Amino acid sequence: MNDSNNIFDPRCRQTPPLAINIINQLDIFGIILYSVLTLMAALSILVYIEECIYIYRKVSTPKKTTINWVNGAAPVIATMSCLGMWIPRATMFTDMTSGSYFAIVVYKFLIMMVEECGGDEEFLKRCGKNTLRISTGPCCCCCPCLPRVAITRRTLFLLKLGSFQFALLKTVLSILSIILWTNGNFDVADMAITGAAIWINPFIGILTIIALWPVAIMFMHLRLTLRSLRIIPKYAMYQLVLVLSQLQSAIINILAMNGTIACAPPYSSQARGYLMNQQLLILEMFIITLVNRLLYRRHYDPLPLVDPHENDNDQNAKTILQSESGDNVL
Questions:
Q1: Which of 76, 83, 110, 309 is 20 to 30 Å from 68 at the Cα level?
Q2: 62 to each of 68, 112, 228, how far by Cα in Å?
Q3: What are phi and psi of 267, to 5 degrees?
Q4: Up-side HSE of residue 183: CA atoms within 13 Å toward CB?
């Protein structure tokens, strides 16, 4: 922008450059940067493939499928970010692909925690006499007065449904957004009330919050039961992917649309914001992929089965103690 005349450089309003234009304009630093980031994305996929082979050999069905879905979030996002870095005009497609995949991961992470307990039946046997604390984030962390909910088949179904709706509707809305974009009706930067983005994006945000709530409820209930399976660091990595792929991207995009991130021809402000976010995501997801390899690539021992006579044994032990206490008093 020319500050003296307060006139924008016309190149700052151009569409993102073609891939061939990026390659032709790369200097030595750019060649090294793009090569290193591309290598990181490729290594993420290779590490993930090796993990998939190991898990399919060592883990029983259906747990192995769920684990591979969850474990693939970081490599998929890194790969899509790499494609968006090389082909800036495909950014919307790569971002929506990453977002749709992570929406499925949110649901799969909930399923993984249940399957780590042995499946639905074993989970109900193990936790059926307990209650769930629903005053957790991101919906009700500030409402500690909410009553606890009994663990039943209906409760488990509602928790699954709360996360599954995001996996389904996020994918449907992403496809709808692409269709509207081809017709010129969808633009992320268009905040007018008549634009489609102002209606679709907030609705996706609401769906995201609703989907994250059941996962948080289940984690808070099982974090001690599944501690031996490293569920706490796994949940931390899942949350980190969420923050980096959703919150970080939203912050950078808002800064770009407001002009805080300056344009650098041939990149407009918004295209440069996308580029910065993609480059950061490749590095971040590569590191998360390596950490996930340490967490997921291991021998999976099942949890001890629940003893159906455990409550009877506890009751008998209490009776014996009470009898002994009475004898001592006499």
A1: 83
A2: 10, 9, 20
A3: -90, 130
A4: 8
Asked if 225 and 115 touch (Cβ cutoff 8 Å), the reply is: no
Helix (H) or strand (E) holding 245: none
Task: List the structure tokens of 67.
Answer: 């684990």
Q: Quickly count: other Cβ atoms within 10 Å of residue 219's Cβ.
A: 20
What pLDDT, on the 0 to 100 scale, is given for residue 18?
Answer: 83
User: How far is 35 from 265, CA to CA, in rounded Å?
Assistant: 21
- Residue 256 tokens read as 């770009």
Please state, for a pLDDT cut of 90, what percent of the chain lies above it: 35
Instruction: Report the greatest alpha carbon distance in the chain.
Output: 101
| Other Cβ atoms closer than 10 A to 66 | 22
CA distance 315 to 32: 69
Distance between CA 218 and CA 134 in Å, rounded? Answer: 9
Q: Decide if 269 contacts 12 (C-beta within 8 A).
A: yes
- The CA-CA-CA angle for residues 24, 2, 20, to 5°, reads 10
In the chain, the amino acid numbered 132 is L
What Rg do the C-alpha atoms of the chain give, in angstroms? 25
Q: Over the stretch 24-37, which tens digit does the pLDDT of each residue have?
A: 888 899 899 999 99
Angle separating helix axes 91-116 and 269-296, nearest 10 degrees: 20
Please list, in sequence order, all residues whose beta carbon lies within 8 angstroms of the beta carbon of residue 196, skipping any fewer than 6 positions away: 177, 180, 185, 186
This prediction has a pTM of: 0.84
